[in-house]
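Because discrete structure vocabularies remain unfamiliar, we turn briefly to a single example record, giving the amino acid sequence and backbone structure tokens:
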Amino acid sequence: WGSLEGLCIIIILALINYALGLLIFYRKNNKWLLAIGVVINILSLGYFKYTNFFIENINAVVGSDISALNILVPLGISFFVFKAISYLVDIYKCKVKPEKNIVDFLLFMTFFAQILSGPIVRYVDMQEELKNRSVDGDDIRYGLMRFVIGLAKKVFIANNLGILADSIWGISTHEMTVTVAWIGSLAYTLQIYFDFSGYSDMAIGLGRMFGFHFLENFNYPYIASSIQDFWRRWHISLSTWFRDYVYIPLGGSRTKKKSRMVRNLFIVWALTGLWHGANWTFLIWGIFYFVLLLIEHMTDFPKKLGKFGHIYTLLCVLIGWVFFRADSVHEAFLYLKAMAGGNGMGSQAVGWAALPIGNLIFVAIGIIGSTPILSKLELKNKDKKWWNLISGLMTMIVFIFAVSEVVNTSYNPFIYFNF
């Protein structure tokens, strides 16, 4: 649906990985075949996603005038490639046997619900249900409810927070006051959580309705007490992928030399940053987390902060999202300057009347929704008939209003579609 050319590219890459999986297994886990498979997948990701980034930087460094290429980027290429690499590595390590049924393999690689923005589902977690799966009334009910929750997160909360964040980020950073800068950062921090976790909820819900049980991708990351804790809760499928397929194979933290541990950590977070996009802002975002995690690993100081560890973590995350949201490194530092009060404390230069002040209510809603308060309430009453009746009716009502909102508005892009 995205494009016929993109579909052809994805199918060709899938067939290559299908053949390599069989060859690796029947050639007694040949490491050279694995290396070929990993290189093909990385080069395909590099070509489609980073070629113009490299051209731009070559032009800037050597003063050349190489024209950018008109490259079609297949939808979901970043998630697709990571699934393929994990599949080949798991076969090589004898964790799974290769999928012989080409239709089932294509289903694993291109399952529509999560190909665009994850979660990154591994073959080991999906292989049994590719062959034997069943769907009952509870699966349909849970899947529908989970889908509607994700849709509501996206349409009602993330979109309104996005309107607020975009309006503030549209202000010149030289005129932005400290109050507005912090509101803009907080709005984006909440927007990206509800946008991405909403997509994950929808993918998990759709998967359940088709008999697949996908692992959770978020666990209330904004209540984390340290950066390590944050990355155990945020985009879990990505952080565990880098841990299992990059960090541990490099030696992880088990190596006796601290310099190697530092190297391993740096590689992981530099790659994590670049995976998100072809921009220096993402690389700095990744290195920012590398520094924080290295400090925590070497000192373990968040435990000494006690409850203040939550404040420290959230402050670091807010700063990190500035680099993630900014179009350039220069813009990110100017925004951080505004957050630090570099442009003054007043609000006269901002033009508050031009901002969607009514959307501020969604900041409060987002703060409440990013905590487990509502889930604890649901867990406490889930076995009560009246709760199930009310939650079912609310799901129907929310779904109707959410669909109406989608039809009546044009602001519906998912942030992680860009990555």
Summary: The longest helix spans residues 137-169. The chain has a mean pLDDT of 88. DSSP finds 17 helices and no strands in the chain.
